[in-house]
């Protein structure tokens, strides 16, 4: 993944997290990274260094709630959307879609002759 893709990914990370949690209800950090990799056939990869600060920020904003469970003798923190998180997922996804449509219009401009 090139640096431009990484930069764009970082800017959309909160929307990606919210959308995945809207779809899957609850996930733990590593599961989120693997789901993004699987959905994009390896084209996008989220590092733990980017993921966990984003998760903590969304939690601080009141959009996520956490629950810790012991799985195979290890504590695993699951993230879920709050009611506000569900609303933000819908609105932020809609805003990003609109932005991408406008960006697509610009990128598909034919050179002026």
From TrEMBL:
It comes from the Bacteria. Transmembrane segments: none annotated. Coiled coil: none annotated. Residues 17-88 form the Transcription regulator PadR N-terminal domain. This is Helix-turn-helix transcriptional regulator. The lineage of its organism: Bacteria, Pseudomonadati, Bacteroidota, Cytophagia, Cytophagales.
